[in-house]
């Protein structure tokens, strides 16, 4: 069930009505309803994988309790590694086994040995990387004595499988989400209206921006040798907007939906394409994953406390693992590696925390220096996205090769004006709203009611009139 | 909460009302030029063309891929080319044709390969438009459940299209994609003699699984045709060489499944591969020369089979 489907438009009002009218005064019933709704939501993709989700939930719930109740450090460690091992084992089997088997076979074949490993014909369960990381953070936090385990199984299950975040995040933390699940929710009209606005903006980003860009990007990447260099460049830029519209649009819908149910989720995007360097980009892109890696990998590895070499080493590790998290393909690893290289100057010269404040805060136009930095940073991310989008490394290098030749100055082929205008509209609105939580949060708040509604109706109209052909959310595959 | 619900319902009611008005308004001038407008005309042909008849069923690969005059001259049967647009979906093509089949008809079914993969057979926006612009809109709700599920999301967009200026002004469209594109047999012939600068090339057949439900629907259609005293032959569309090459694993998977059924199959997919010079604007749309070649191949296969079946 996609957020941008009429199935969801029917599903959600039913959940909303039951949640706020039938189960309103009973927290237990509200949580049980959320759990049933979440499992139904997940089962709509493939009911068989519901058992995997349930198993993962039971595993982390049980090992969390065992760790907390363990009489010795040895037993605590045993339960911890059991949970981590099984969680990563599932991830390894479903997501990475074929990659390792094929890569090993290719390496052996390169040195003259023939090895024929079994490959698995398995479908990747939707959202497995997200709920595995969700569960892992819970288990690690208990092991490190940062939190106590949740003893109510329903509450814990809702924490893992709450449907707005189940398949593509944000990756929540027990310290943030569990207390909200445990406490009584009170309907707040302003919060709900804000949630609806965020859902609307998310739909615009997904349906109008991402899906329209996807049509062009798919056309060029599928048949790149037939297009000019300038067309390649446009496709690469469109992919940058596609993945942003797709993933941040999904996050906006998830956050808005959760707010309608009285729950605040972690913010996942903060206008990443207005970043002035790569370090700032990573503070603004997929924030819940970046902070997860910071807290559960970078800091345990020593963070930046062990001198320059350790900082450099840890930065490379983080980016390579982050790339690999996205998918079992060398393209993702190279994407991560490129970002590690791009961020390296600021790590070495310790300028990675130079741009912490919002760009051009309180002003309409940025300074020339900021604008230049934004354009350069965007250019670097667009270049790296080529690897992220390509099916193989060879395909990525071919695409880049075709992007730099004399036809760079010819007119790009097949670009629809409406797509360009919609991207311009997105950039303008997000720039104007960059000091808020999402693009249109406060943009028209001071306008008279009629104009405000007209503005929202315009977005609704654009969604229906200019929606691209429906595409699966990209991050579902991770 | 009450105020929130009141305002939300009010906010939603306005576009709902606009949408309802959009649905009830007559087709826009642009829609009236669309090639979909021939759907009722082709239905009328299916009702009124005299025996002996041969009905050719598919999407635009049939509309753009047949010279019916050759069929008529060679087989001495009155051809009815029902091909309009693949986006109407194979379920629609089967169900719509089924109601007009008469005793003695020969039905030739040659769907695009895309119809057998994923949910393409359930139809797209074109299916919705056929009903709301050209037929009785209420009949739309009598379609199969899978067709409704696939196409109902297009309702808001369709309704809103009634309020878009481009639907009323600057209506110039390609003649071969208009209602004027067809000859008396239902062939698209407006493009004959023209060339298209950059034909689309399919790099894959969309839809990640072979849809066995639609294959079963074809088998059931065959039973229905037989029960009416008519004969069904299954054959393959003309398809661009390159697109055939990249889609070959899927096409062979489909062919293997097809050959396990009790359908009478004419020829092979390879037989109907078309070189680029015979292609007009998409891998299924043929030039006059392409359509002639395809028709001659089809007639040859048909003659052989009809002799076997004592239908000549």
Radius of gyration of chain A: 23 Å
Radius of gyration of chain B: 21 Å
The largest beta-sheet of chain B arranges its strands as 2-1-3-4
Mean pLDDT of chain A: 90
The CATH topology of chain B is what? Rossmann fold
The CATH architecture of chain B can be named as 3-Layer(aba) Sandwich
User: SSE string of chain A, helix = H, strand = E?
Assistant: HHHHHHHHHHHHHHHHHH
Uncertain regions spanning at least 5 consecutive residues of chain A:
none
User: Quick one: biggest sheet of chain B?
Assistant: 4 strands, parallel
Q: List the total number of helices of chain B.
A: 12
Q: Features of this protein?
A:
heterodimer; A: 478 residues; 18 helices; B: alpha/beta; two-stranded parallel sheet; globular
Please explain how this structure is put together.
- Chain A: The chain crosses the membrane at residues 39-58, 78-97, 117-141, 370-388, 454-475.
- Chain A is mainly alpha-helical.
- Chain A is built from 18 helices and no strands.
- Chain A has 2 domains: 6-186, no CATH class; 190-276 and 355-477, no CATH class.
- Chain B contains 12 helices and 6 strands.
- The radius of gyration of chain B is 21 Å and the shape is globular.
- Chain B has 312 residues and is α/β, with parallel strands linked by helices.
- The mean pLDDT of chain B is 92.
- Classes of the chains: A mainly alpha (478), B alpha/beta (312).
Q: How would you briefly describe this protein structure?
A:
The complex is a heterodimer of chains A (478) and B (312). Chain A has 478 residues and is mainly α.
Topology:
The complex is a heterodimer of chains A (478) and B (312).
Chain A: H1 6-22, H2 27-46, H3 50-69, H4 73-110, H5 128-143, H6 153-161, H7 163-166, H8 174-182, H9 189-222, H10 229-260, H11 278-284, H12 287-298, H13 308-326, H14 330-348, H15 368-389, H16 393-403, H17 417-432, H18 449-465
Chain B: H1 2-24, H2 29-33, H3 39-48, E1 53-57, H4 60-63, H5 68-75, E2 78-81, H6 90-98, E3 106-109, H7 125-134, H8 145-151, H9 155-161, H10 212-227, E4 231-234, E5 239-240, H11 241-259, E6 273-274, H12 288-308
Parallel strand pairs in B: 1-2, 1-3, 3-4, 5-6
């Amino acid at each position: 069930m996609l957020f941008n489907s009429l199935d969801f438009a029917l599903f959600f009002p039913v959940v909303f009505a039951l949640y706020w009218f039938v189960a309103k005064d009973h927290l237990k019933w509200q949580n049980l309803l959320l759990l049933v709704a979440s499992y139904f939501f997940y089962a709509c993709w493939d009911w068989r994988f519901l058992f995997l989700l349930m198993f993962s939930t039971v595993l982390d719930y049980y090992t969390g309790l065992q760790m907390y109740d363990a009489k010795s450090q040895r037993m605590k460690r045993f339960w911890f590694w059991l949970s981590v091992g099984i969680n990563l084992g599932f991830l390894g089997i479903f997501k990475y086994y074929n990659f390792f088997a094929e890569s090993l076979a290719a390496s052996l074949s390169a040195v003259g040995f023939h090895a024929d490993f079994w490959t698995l014909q398995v479908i990747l369960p939707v959202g497995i990387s997200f709920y595995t990381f969700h569960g892992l953070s819970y288990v690690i936090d208990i092991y490190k004595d940062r939190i106590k385990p949740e003893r109510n199984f329903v509450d814990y299950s809702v924490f893992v499988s709450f449907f707005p975040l189940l398949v593509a995040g944000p990756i929540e933390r027990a310290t943030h989400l569990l207390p909200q699940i445990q406490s009584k929710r009170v309907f707040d009209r302003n919060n709900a209206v804000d949630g609806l606005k965020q859902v609307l903006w998310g739909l615009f980003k997904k349906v109008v921006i991402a899906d329209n860009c996807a049509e062009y990007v798919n056309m060029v990447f599928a048949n790149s040798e037939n297009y000019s260099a300038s067309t390649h460049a446009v496709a690469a830029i469109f992919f940058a907007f596609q993945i942003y519209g797709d993933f941040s649009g999904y996050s906006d819908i998830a956050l808005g939906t959760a707010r309608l149910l009285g729950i605040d989720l972690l913010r996942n995007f903060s206008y990443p394409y207005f970043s002035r360097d790569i370090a700032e980009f990573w503070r603004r892109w997929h924030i819940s994953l970046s902070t997860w890696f910071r807290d559960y990998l970078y800091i345990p590895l020593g963070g930046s406390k062990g001198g320059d070499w350790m900082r450099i080493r840890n930065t490379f590790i983080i980016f390579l693992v982050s790339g690999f998290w996205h998918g079992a393909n060398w393209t993702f690893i190279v994407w991560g590696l490129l970002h590690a290289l791009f961020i390296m100057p600021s790590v070495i010269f310790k300028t990675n925390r130079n741009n912490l404040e919002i760009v051009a805060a309180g002003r309409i136009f940025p300074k020339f220096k900021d604008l230049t930095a934004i354009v350069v940073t965007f250019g670097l991310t667009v270049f790296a996205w080529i690897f992220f989008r390509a099916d193989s490394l060879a395909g990525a290098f071919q695409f880049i090769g075709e992007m730099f030749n004399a036809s760079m100055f010819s007119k790009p082929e097949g670009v629809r004006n409406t797509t360009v205008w919609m991207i311009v509209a997105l950039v303008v609105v997000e720039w104007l709203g960059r000091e808020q939580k999402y693009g249109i949060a406060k943009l028209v708040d001071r306008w008279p009611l009629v104009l405000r509604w007209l503005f929202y109706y315009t977005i609704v109209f654009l969604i229906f009139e200019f929606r691209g052909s429906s595409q699966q959310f990209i991050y579902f595959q991770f | 909460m009450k105020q929130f619900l009141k305002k939300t319902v009010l906010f939603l009611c306005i576009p709902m009302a606009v949408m309802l008005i959009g649905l009830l308004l007559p087709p826009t001038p642009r829609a009236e030029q669309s090639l979909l407008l021939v759907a009722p005309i082709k239905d009328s042909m299916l009702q009124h063309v005299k025996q002996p008849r041969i009905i050719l069923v598919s999407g635009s690969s049939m509309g753009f891929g047949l010279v019916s005059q050759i069929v008529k001259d060679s087989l001495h049967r009155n051809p009815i080319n029902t091909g309009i647009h693949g986006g109407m979906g194979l379920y629609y093509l089967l169900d719509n044709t089924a109601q007009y089949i008469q005793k003695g008809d020969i039905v030739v079914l040659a769907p695009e390969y895309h119809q057998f993969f994923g949910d393409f057979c359930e139809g797209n926006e074109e299916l919705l438009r056929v009903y709301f612009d050209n037929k009785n809109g209420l009949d739309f709700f009598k379609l199969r459940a899978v067709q409704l599920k696939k196409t109902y999301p297009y309702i808001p967009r369709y309704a809103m299209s009634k309020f878009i200026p481009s639907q009323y002004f600057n209506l110039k469209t390609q003649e071969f994609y208009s209602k004027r594109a067809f000859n008396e047999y239902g062939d698209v012939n407006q493009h004959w003699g023209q060339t298209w600068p950059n034909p689309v090339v399919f790099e894959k057949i969309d839809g990640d699984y072979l849809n066995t439900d639609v294959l079963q629907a074809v088998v059931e259609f065959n039973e229905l045709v037989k029960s009416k005293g008519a004969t069904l032959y299954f054959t393959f569309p003309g398809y661009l060489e390159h697109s055939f090459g990249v889609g070959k694993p899927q096409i062979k998977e489909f062919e293997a499944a097809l050959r396990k059924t009790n359908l009478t199959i004419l020829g092979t997919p390879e037989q109907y591969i078309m070189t680029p010079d015979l292609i007009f604007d998409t891998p299924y749309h043929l030039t006059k020369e392409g359509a002639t070649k395809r028709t001659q191949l089809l007639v040859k296969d048909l003659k052989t089979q009809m002799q076997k079946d004592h239908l000549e």
